[in-house]
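lol ok so funny story. i was supposed to be doing the assay writeup but got distracted and ended up predicting the structure for this chain instead. priorities right. anyway since i did it might as well share w the group, maybe its usefull for someone
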Amino acid sequence: MFLFCVLGVCGCCGALRPRYKRLVDNIFPEDPEDGLVKANMEKLTFYALSAPEKLDRIGAYLSERLSRDVARHRYGYVCIAMEALDQLLMACHCQSINLFVESFLTMVRKLLEADKPNLQILGTNSFVKFANIEEDTPSYHRSYDFFVSRFSEMCHSSYEDPDIRTKIRMAGIRGLQGVVRKTVNDELQANIWDPQHMDKIVPSLLFNLQQEEITERSPSPETEKEKESPIELTERCFRELLGRAAYGNIKNAVKPVLMHLDNHSLWEGKTFAVRCFKIIMYSIQSQHSHLVIQQLLGHLDANSKNSATVRAGIVEVISEAAVIEASGSIGPTVLEVFNTLLKQLRLSVDYELTGCYESCTSAGSKVIKVHEERQLQEAVIKTIGSFASTLPTYQRSEVMLFIMGKIPVPGMYPALGSANTGFEGSRMIQIMLLKSLLQVTAGFQTTNMLTALPSSFLDPLLSFTLMEDAEIRLLVLDILISLIDRHDNQLKVLTDISVLKLKMDKCSRQDNLFMKKHSQRLYRHVFLASKEENSSQGHFQSLYALLGLICVELANEEVVVDLIRLALALQDLALTEESLPVYNRCAIHALSAAYLNLISQLTTVPTFCQHVHEVIEARQKELPFLLPEDVFVETPKIPEKLEKVEGEVLFSQAKIAETLGGSGYNSERLATPYIPQLTGVSCSGKIPDSSI
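and the output, tada:
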């Protein structure tokens, strides 16, 4: 009788338990391997939808059961509890959902804190499902700080078993992705873009992005998403994070990348750093690209006294990023970009010549490796070219003027080398900046040469053609060629004239005005540059290319006449300047012959062509070393001494004036020898020139 009463009381108490607890208990089977009791789960879901005010209690009770099952290592019931929570979250979008979510997040936190990898992965999967749910009601006090920290830790897992380690890391990545999705567009949540969060999220993603060797996993019936490698998943997550970054968040998203590359010495390898910033540039909104470039430039400045390999790595990344950046979107501080790069060039030259970063007398100063500084200089020059290629013509003209203003020109601009580097420092800076200018002019095309190349640019540039330094003169000639060649005719001019297919447009009004203003200055500098004793094969070939391109790109009838006069004046120069080396005199003869041959075929005046052809044939028979085929080669075939050249191997100014005069050209002007007007003092201090 007593036993019956006890059982009756117990049964009565069980019936008095709250309905939500009974419904929760009923979803758990006697054997956890049987899984969630679906019929009872449907009843619980219906009850939660019918009585939403009970939802928070259901969550609290499920959380209590889960905590008890975790403590007792009853992991089967833990999985059932989480599955039930997931289904309730998906089904319920009522005003009481916030209290239920707090219970849910408490359970996820409990699983993530467990030592068992399977529980950590289970908790992460539930959190990711929750992150994809759009809540109908706002939450004012929810915090995700713990989840950012815990998922970041999982991304760095060092678990012994490689397969389990990979799964934990991938769970951490998915968890971070879920946190970002849940918070990035919710103004009521803690700002995920704050440095305290970005300093954990970004390095965790980069750590997994650089894990290039992935242990092969045994095939298993997983979904395609689970088969995704950590690197692929990380890159997708990183791209998603960057794609959501607004204008004000770019800095906080990029700064941890810079710090990670610094801390792990990843600039020197370049490959990973370039890959990271390619992902960044392709992922962020295009109008924000210039912000990334500016951060990279600032970081380059901050590392001015770091090793050349580190600076070269940063410069390489800037170069790659500039190519990706949309044309003309460098932002409002275009000249600041070039100013920073030119500053790095100057610093590198100083370091190379002084041999140290600080005062060489200071203790512990680093030793400079010259070859590394040279590599850095080439990288900076390449980057300047990459930037310039993204600019419209008007901005590129501004950059050309800006660089020209930085080049030290004796007598015009002060030397920019430091006190410790002296003349050699100024010379090296001149060379580096002229190389930079050559990069900027590559592919430069303008319909109005007069506005694109004002006197403030041309005057100092042409003055360099008269300097004693052969390397500087050659760079200036290449720059002039690059500026004038608007139809890619340079290589054609240097090939066999008879098979040329030159693009010749009618000289525009703007080109006529340009030549009217600057032609005599150009001719004068070509003539005087030919007299330099230390000129080499490259100089004379560049002079020929320059004359040929002026003829093809900018010539009208008056220009053609003056160019022929200049070519004949060069022939006279080779005859009269006996103090010049034999090679130079032969090269000047060859330059004159090559140019007259080109211009005769372009003018197509039969008698003029015949005269030029006759002189060339005579030289081929008697003096082949006065033709480009024997002179403009690696091993020129020239005599030890040049005997007096006269007779039929010389071009006759009188015959040329007569033949062209009959075709409408100004015969009186053709018959007048070309004499450059020499007044003033040149920048080299030895050849006077009125243009300086």
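Confidence is low (pLDDT under 50) at residues 1-12, 213-225, 413-417, 679-692. The first helix runs from residue 2 to 16.
back to the writeup now i swear
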